[in-house]
Amino acid sequence: MSTSVPFVVSESGRHYPIGPAPAEHSDLVRVYVWEWPVRLAHWGIVLSIVVLAVTGIYIGNPSITVTGPAGDHFLTGTVKIVHFYAAILFTLAVLSRLIWMFRGNHFARWDKFIPVKRRRRRGLVQALRFYLFQLRKPPGFIGHNPLAGATYTLVFLIYLVMILTGFTLYGASANVDSHMRVFGLLVPLFGGLQTARLIHHTGMWLLIGFAIHHVYSAVLMSQIEANGTTESIFSGYKFVHKDDVIYSGYRYIDPKDIHEQHL
Predict the structure, then answer these.
(1) Closest alpha carbon to 238 in 253, 227, 251, 249
(2) 159: Cβ contacts below 8 Å, ≥ 6 apart
(3) DSSP output for 173-241
(4) Which domains does the chain have, with CATH numbers?
(5) Phi and psi (nearest 5°) for 109?
(6) CB contact set of 197 (below 8 Å; sequence gap of 6+)
(7) For each successive 10 residues of the chain (263 residues), what is the average pLDDT?
(8) How far is 48 from 54, CA to CA, in rounded Å?
């Protein structure tokens, strides 16, 4: 493919902006996958989760003792303040990513998370077959494969539960003049403060477990596909085979389905 061509057209008629690949990898094209709002939201979520997990564990089990009057140190209060501001960053990052599901490019859209189209649902099986070692190579999706997208849908649901339970816990003990007290109205929704705290705590460990798996799988897929998966969350670009751009992950699906419109 000539390096002067600014895009490639898939069978569905979609235009993908690309850049030149190194000459020694002439079958590869550089595709701009993750736009800067996606990358910014991703790293905002990563940073805030790290801070929230560390401070949250301490809040749940204060274990640091200081000498002298507590009022001179205000350690636990300071940790709670840091936790609250990290929660604001987390909330803004999650909301911005949700908005970008409707404003972003093809790879960021909401239908890459919820498999509403038949071809995405069929892709679920092929992605699962790869993860179960039934296929030697992944199906070749440029962005999220359907199984990963469906998993991220569950993760975003956990995000929303964490935001609501967190603000509920904060609102129940907020100052009487604070506008955050409105979230105290959600206490009955979660079955009381103790249940809300349990849900919040459980959600934290679920996210920590997901984060470990997410880093492992990203590095693994980056090695297997050799397309810059890990690097793409910094640069936005992936190096993908030209066939994957044209057929977009459906190399294992019936050839007649390749010509269906609307991925």
Answers:
(1) 227
(2) 45, 90, 94, 207
(3) TS-TT-GGGGGGGGGGGGTSHHHHHHHHHHHHHHHHHHHHHHHHHHHHHHHHH-S-HHHHHHHSEEEEE
(4) 36-225 (1.20.950.20)
(5) -70, 160
(6) 165, 169
(7) 42 49 64 94 97 94 74 82 96 97 92 88 85 80 89 96 95 84 90 94 96 90 81 90 68 49 40
(8) 10
